[in-house]
Amino acid sequence: MNMTDVAKRGLVLLGCGKMGSAMLEGWLRTGLPPLAVTVIDPNPSDWLKEQGVQIGGKLPENPAVAIVAVKPQMMKEALPDVKVLGNGQTLVISVAAGTPMRTFETVLGDQTPIVRAMPNTPAAIGRGITAIVGNARVQSDQMDLAEALLLSVGDVVRLDGEDQMDVVTAVSGSGPAYVFHLIETLAAAGMAEGLPADLAMHLAKATVAGAGDLAENDDVNPAQLRVNVTSPNGTTEAALKILMDFETGFPPLLRRAVAAAAKRSRELANE
Asked: Would 26 be classed as within a structural domain?
């Protein structure tokens, strides 16, 4: 199954908020016919209404794929809308955080091929990273299709099992919030040392964005990149002695933060 099959058989998008809109924009940009897409959303945006897709109405009889992109707290109310597509040939892809595949198998049927995906917020600008894993009913060509669809919003990695999803959620799913907090606290530290607020924020944003781009695109390990910009007895070394402290610095702090997020992800799966 490939994108040609999607164009012929159709795609159902359940929920078209920020993530759903980002994916839809990518699919349409890369050539998926608007008429091949059916969107189920109780409050369609003006942008969605301008895309030429079908909004609401009758579902395709046997669509190639159904994407579930609603918030987890809306799942129980929204999922029955696509129950008719379960136990068939339709691949169901969920991008809902904290919702295990067994939830979908209970509602849609245990013969339903299901891929669980965890994108992150940079997907809104096509710079996300999405982890995917499928249940036992997913064929190799369906995994390829899921990857192709999610490449529209950034990079895609495949997991060995669903048990890895809680840690992925803690690292990359929640990770952008950690970086945003780094930016705001770096700017606040600059202000505390006398910089104007707008200049401190501009410097903090540009520094984090540039360093991230360098880390992503340079073949050098990030640890070595850190060493490369750290002169002996210089300003960076003075700061890193604080940040890399074994008891109070970044290492133990981030370990605790990621562990807390992973723990909460496991709890959400059982609520």
From this structure: yes
User: Residues of the chain whose pLDDT is less than 50?
Assistant: none
* Residue 30 sits in the same domain as residue 67: yes
For residue 119, count other CB atoms closer than 10 A to its CB: 25
Q: Do residue 261 and residue 139 come from a single domain? A: no
Give the span between the Cα atoms of 145 and 16, in whole angstroms.
Answer: 20
Neighbours of 26 (CB within 10 A): 18
| pLDDT on residue 79 | 85
| H or E stretch at 115 | strand 114-118
pLDDT at 268: 82
pLDDT in tens, 22-42: 999 999 988 999 999 999 998
DSSP 94: E
**Could you give the CA distance from residue 190 to residue 188 in angstroms, rounded to a whole number?**
5
Phi, psi of 34 (to 5 degrees): -55, -35
The pLDDT value recorded for residue 246 is 93
User: Would you state the structure tokens that stand for residue 41, as one six-digit string?
Assistant: 């959303």
User: Residue 128 phi/psi, 5° resolution?
Assistant: -80, 175
Angle at the Cα of 264 (from 261 to 267), degrees rounded to 5?
A: 155
- What are the backbone dihedrals phi and psi of residue 89, each rounded to the nearest 5 degrees, phi first? -95, 0
d(C-alpha 253, C-alpha 248), whole Å: 7
Residue 170 forms part of a structural domain: no
Give me 109's structure tokens. Answer: 């049927």
For 216, the domain range is 175-268
Same domain, 72 and 140: yes
Amino acid at site 141: D
One domain for residues 147 and 183? no
